[in-house]
Amino acid sequence: MQCQRHLLRANVLIESNEAFEEIHGIFHFTGTLVVYQRDNEVYHAVSKARYSTPSEIRVEHLSHNLLIPVSAYCPPWRPEFTRAPDPLPCNTHTKTPRLISYDGLHRGPQPNYIADSILDEVGVCEVLKRNPHSNIARYLGCQVSDDRITGICFAKYSSTLTETVNPGNYMKWQSRSVRRKGEDYSHLLRGVESDGVGRTYEWYDEDVQFATPQNDFDALDEIRAWLGDESKAFRFDE
């Protein structure tokens, strides 16, 4: 959950995202999705307005305010899971759930899909903790509050992805080679999909229905082509 600490008067904005709908082959803006906190409760809402920065969002702009129950995004902690140090080391990245898609999930057959996904991810992290690899982020454990998992903690990388692909930092080919080795290893441990591009529009095969190692490797080939590898052709339609 990307915590953008902009105030909505008595509320705190947690995340926001623009929504689009494809009409006759053209994507049209349909609204701004907003997740915010009021007191100790978290809500999903919609604004018809479009904003230059999240700080422009006001609570009076919001409609369809939907309470998100804690059980939907903070699963119960289990004794077999590693608990993160308290206090956390200063070089820690805490991954918290993104709730921007909850409005669609709560009407479906899996309203607790986000919480279930967190449990699945923690399970993979526990396997990686027992089988560490230098190219995979080091898992520190779960952040826990009231016996529920509120975040998954990792040791921070020494550089960001942008810095890594910057020629003034590391060579691009070295960066891709390192990532490929990390993905090979995670697949070997059956953590199957590391989600190299997060099913980003134009960066994945829309015909793919199942998570397989080849999905990530195809995405890496697309990245190579985008970065200028003339031996690689673009694989996915624009």
Biggest β-sheet: strands ordered side by side in the sheet = 1-2-3-4-5
The secondary-structure class comes to alpha+beta
SS field, number of helical segments = 5
Shape: globular
Q: How many extended strands?
A: 8
Beta-strand content estimate: 25-35%
The Cα radius of gyration reads 20 Å
Quaternary structure annotation? single chain
Overall mean pLDDT score? Answer: 81
Residue share in helix: 10-25%
Largest sheet: 5 strands, antiparallel
Secondary structure layout:
Blueprint: E1 6-8, E2 11-23, E3 26-38, E4 41-47, E5 62-68, E6 92-95, H1 102-105, H2 113-130, E7 139-145, E8 148-155, H3 161-165, H4 172-188, H5 213-226
Antiparallel strand pairs: 1-2, 2-3, 3-4, 4-5, 6-8, 7-8
Helix pairs in contact: 4-5
Describe the structure.
- With 238 residues, this protein is of the alpha+beta class.
- The chain contains five helices and eight strands.
- It has helices spanning 102-105, 113-130, 161-165, 172-188, 213-226, and strands at residues 6-8, 11-23, 26-38, 41-47, 62-68, 92-95, 139-145, 148-155.
- A five-stranded antiparallel beta sheet has the order 1-2-3-4-5, with no helix packed on it. The chain has a three-stranded antiparallel beta sheet with strand order 6-8-7, with helices on one face.
- A hairpin with a 2-residue loop joins strand 3 and strand 4.
- Helix 4 (172-188) packs antiparallel against helix 5 (213-226).
- The longest helix is centred in the middle third of the chain and has 18 residues, at 113-130.
- It starts with 5 loop residues before the first strand and ends in a 12-residue tail after the last helix.
- Mean pLDDT is 81; it is low at 1-7 and 192-198.
